[in-house]
Amino acid sequence: MIKMNIKKGSGGAQAFLVGLCILIFAPMQLTGQNAATDDLQALKSLDETISNTQTLLEKYPGKDFAPNLMFQLSELYIKRATLEFQRAMLIYEEAEAKHEAGLLKNAPEIPEIDFSTTTKMSEELLEKFPTISFRDKVLYRLALCYSEESKKEEAARCYRLLTEASTEKEMLEESYFRLGEHHFDKKEYTDAVDYYSRLLESWDSPFFSMALYKLGWSYYSIENYQKAIGTFVYLVEDIVALNKSGQKSLEASKADLRREAIDYIAICFSEYGGPDKARKFLVAKKSKDYTPGVLESMARLYNERNFYGDAITTLQMLIEFYPNQVDAAFHHKKIVENYEKAGEADKADVERVKIVEQYGPGSEWLQQIAAGDKRDEVLNLVEGYIYDLGTETQQIAQDSKTIFDFEVAISHYNSYIKKFPKHERAHKVQFYLAECYFEIKNYDKAAKSYYELHLNYPESEFSETAAYNRVLAYNHLLSNEAEVDSADFFLFNFLGKGKKKEEVELFKAKNARQAQLIQAVNDFVVFHKESARASEVLINLGRIMFELKRFDLARQVYAEIIARPDEKRYGAQAHYMLAQCEFEQNNFEESEIWHRKVVELFPDSTRFLERANKMIASAQFKKAEAVLASGDSLAAASTFETIAGSAPDSAIAERALFMAANQFEVLDKIDKAIALYENFSFSFPRSDLVDESLLKAGRLAEDKGNLNQAASNYLKLHRQVRTSQYASRALFDAAKCYEVSERSDLARLYYDEYIKTYQDDPDRFLEAAFKKGEIAYKNRQKTAKTELEFVVTSYDRFQKEGKQAEAYFPAYAQFLHAELLFKTYNNIKLTGSLKKKLKSKRVFFQKVLKEYSTAAKYRVADWTTASSFRIGMTFQSFAEALLEAPQPKGVTAEQLQAYMAKLNEQVLPFKQKAVAAYETNIKNAEELGIENEWIEKTRKRLQQLNTELGLTSMDTELDSDS
User: Fold this and answer.
1) Phi, psi (deg, nearest 5) at residue 506
2) What SS3 class is residue 32?
3) CB 307: neighbour CB atoms within 10 A?
4) Taking a C-beta distance cutoff of 8 angstroms, is the pair 751, 735 a contact?
5) Contact 359, 378 (CB under 8 A)
6) Torsion from C-alpha of 836, 842, 848, 850, nearest 10 degrees
7) For every residue of 585-651, which 3-state class applies, written as one string?
8) Could you tell me which residues come within 8 angstroms of residue 91 by beta carbon, excluding any fewer than 6 positions away?
9) CB–CB of 171/160 below 8 Å?
């Protein structure tokens, strides 16, 4: 009974087994529909032959033909087993089909072929007749049968015996190969190497390529990588030779073997020395057609193992060996991918840049590559890389905010525009480039890049934004441009209204930057007139025209904004600025009309409503100025006064009120002028003109003799505007007004406040200090002496501080200080205790002389002459005091006469010194051309003394001790 043992699904094994049987037993094969009808007949015929052969063998077991008969019988057993297997397969296939169709519940079992009868007969044959001449054929048939029954060890035993029994080349080659396979499957690679190696000389054998392949694999498995590599290389090169010769190989196609050999060379290098070892081995084999495959396989292998560094090195070697191949770009792409997988984005970017430069437009590599799909694919790769490099770097820059990152992105974008100017994404890159320049504040290049977008890609989705950003860029450039260097500038097609020569506008721009801004703004309006941003840009243009005093063009711009449908955002501003244009052109009536439109049409626009009201008042003010210019001062003054009372703008009202007061002052309507100036300080207490208005009110009141009113205005000025340049003088003048009006208490009060508050003007400080002391002197106040001394010490202090000051008031103060002593001295009468009184008078006599002498030293004409006069008078007064002293009582006439004679002798020197002082005073005054009351008094005193001395003869002098 034949055993069937082919597993379900092993279609390749089944086909191989059937094929082998067909190969061996071709005459007995049943195929197609004939198998179903002829198998029983064939088996019946075969069984008869087997029966006859067995009978014959049993009848003649010892005959010479017995071995042949046994061999033939074993062959017949093979044929019967094969036919039974074929019949079983037909039955199996029918049952399988029914099972798959659901007609059979249980799946049928796959049949297995059974050569046991044959193998038993063959083993018996070899045992009985070990020396038969066809022993090798029996062993071969036996080995095949064992193999088909998956009895690997028995098959291997037979192949070993076959190698000893046969001398036939083909049979030996197959035996070596089958034994090599047997040991290979058992992973006995050393034994496998032994058998595979026996085929190295049989290059024409159908087993040669497969044996060589398995030999390399065996070497690899025992980690003899060097021999494995050599073997695989030998195999690859042999396959090339086989291809040329047309020789066939066994079991696997030459292409498969070659591909696998190349893969194993790569695997060996990955295990044996890596890329460095591969380089040393392959550098001399660059011309071999398998070298690129080895390197590619190595790179792929390293990549799969996540050995990205080795993969990159291998790919770099591949590019180095074959730089001009089409695939070089794709190998380089894999380098990028490996860096990315390794997490080394920076290095990946470096390689992407290299790819762009080495394979992109303009590269030598691309010039050598013929047009076709691969060329286009490389160009797409380069385009994608450079685009990604730019956009990714720009994103990084936007996060980092570093100029360096933006500059790197700029470099990529510039390269892109140069290499792919007509690509569908070029317009985006042009816009991104401009944006990067804008981010790093290189507004000049940003503006030019935005303009390039407009010129080269007018249909771009970014066209409008680019035009707008160009305006912003020039705005920045203009705001940062300090230089003012006017430039003539021609602008065509202003607001898109015409291109004729006569419609060209000539500007005198502030500088070249402003000219560029005007052009950019006008371009936006012309090409993007319907844009939602048009009004915003027009406002910008209007402002520039206004600044350039091209009010006619500015008016056109604002009128354009007003005419735009549904314009709300800039409507109030446009109306207001149009009114301003009229104002600047002195069209005050039209200006007021447009300003009133602002008030009427935009009552909710607080910003422009307030301004418009101010400008309405300004227009009225200008009309009033026109009336004034016409010569009607009274009408102008009245108009200004009216505006001051009605203008909503405090600034206008302020100016109008001041102008009204000024005009009434000019018209000599002083009371009206004073009233308006005083009213100004109440109405506009924070105005910059408050101090001037109060000063004028004070001056005018003072001129009219209204000193108290004047002082009041001066004090208001000082109190309200302490920081005014007039504040200190106003306080001083207030004190002076009170002094003149004989309100000495107030005068002293404000002179005192002045000297406590202001010291920046030494002369006025000394005058105020003196005035305070003088009032005390005149009012005989006890503080007079101290206050007069303060004047003198303050003057000395100023001198020490290096501050220039006039000596008049210090000299005057010193003189009055001496006057106080003189009065005390003069009031000492020589009565009562004569000796004591005389001593006191002498003391004050010396003090008075010293004080007057000090006053004279200031060399101020008035007080030098006055002091000199007082010095003479002091001598004279002393003499008179002596003469007027009481005469002694209880003396005789003779004694009294002798006393008087002696007294005259003592008085004479004092009179003589008085004469000398008077004469010196007169002489000095005459030399200096001075004539005043003190000189006149001096002359009278001198004449009196000379007369007196001429009538009286004194021969004795007063004893110096008396």
Assistant:
1) -105, 125
2) coil
3) 20
4) yes
5) yes
6) -130
7) CCCHHHHHHHHHHHHHHCCCCHHHHHHHHHHHHHHHHHHHHHHHHCCCHHHHHHHHHHHHHHCCCHH
8) 108
9) no
Q: Is 489 helix (H, G, I), strand (E, B) or coil?
A: strand
Task: Please give the Cα distance from 540 to 558 (Å, whole number).
Answer: 10
Contact, 214 vs 192, CB < 8 A? yes
Q: Which residues contact 391 (CB under 8 A, 6 or more apart)?
A: 409, 432
pLDDT(235) > 50: yes
Measured distance CA(407)–CA(391) in Å, rounded: 12
Cα–Cα nearest to 445, from 436, 456, 454, 455: 436
Residue with tokens 């529909």: 33
Q: Please, which residues have CB within 8 angstroms of residue 871's CB and are 6 or more apart in sequence? A: 849, 852, 853, 856, 917
Distance of CA 896 to the CA centre of its chain: 116
CA distances from 270 to 232, 234, 311 (A): 14, 19, 10
Domain edges within the chain: 1-166, 171-322, 817-951
**What ranges in 801-886 are assigned the alpha helix state H?**
808-826, 834-856, 861-883
- Separation between Cα atoms, residue 904 and residue 956, nearest integer Å: 7
Query: What are the tens digits of pLDDT across the range 818-857?
Result: 888 888 887 777 766 666 667 777 887 888 888 888 888 8
Q: Which residues pair with 625 in a beta bridge?
A: none
CA distance 577 to 705: 51
pLDDT of residue 139 exceeding 90, the answer is yes
**Homologous superfamily assigned to 1-166:** Tetratricopeptide repeat domain (1.25.40.10)
Residue for token pair 């063009």: 553
Residues 6 or more apart whose Cβ sits within 8 Å of residue 308? 302, 338, 339, 341, 342
Share of the chain above pLDDT 70, in %: 89
Chain centre distance of CA 714: 57
Beta bridge partners of 505: 491
Q: Distance between CA 389 and CA 380 in Å, rounded?
A: 14
Distance of CA 214 to the CA centre of its chain: 66
How far apart (Å, rounded) are the C-alpha atoms in residues 516 and 479?
Answer: 13
If we measure between CA atoms, which residue out of 299, 307, 213 comes closest to residue 264?
Answer: 213
Q: Evaluate whether 1-166 and 171-322 have a shared fold.
A: yes
What is the DSSP code (8-state) at residue 183? H
| Residue 851 CB coordination number (10 Å) | 24
Tokens of 21: 């049987």
pLDDT at 420: 92
Largest CA distance in the chain: 228
**157 Cβ contact partners less than 8 Å away, ≥ 6 residues apart:** none
Distance of CA 893 to the CA centre of its chain: 121
- Long-range pairs for 408-414 at CB < 8 Å and ≥24 separation? 409/436, 410/436, 410/437, 410/440, 412/353, 412/386
- Would you tell me the crossing angle of helices 345-359 and 373-400 to the nearest 10 degrees? 140
The three-state (H, E, C) secondary structure of 433-486, written as one string: HHHHHHHCCCHHHHHHHHHHHHHHCCCCCCHHHHHHHHHHHHHHHHHCCCCCCC
- The span from the CA of 21 to the CA of 113, in Å, is 10
In the structure, what pLDDT confidence band is assigned to residue 19 with cuts at 50, 70 and 90?
Answer: very low
With contact defined as beta carbons under 8 Å apart, do 318 and 338 qualify? no
Fold of 171-322: 1.25.40
Nearest to 235 by CA among 317, 283, 182, 293: 293
The strand pairing partners of 508, in sequence order, are 488
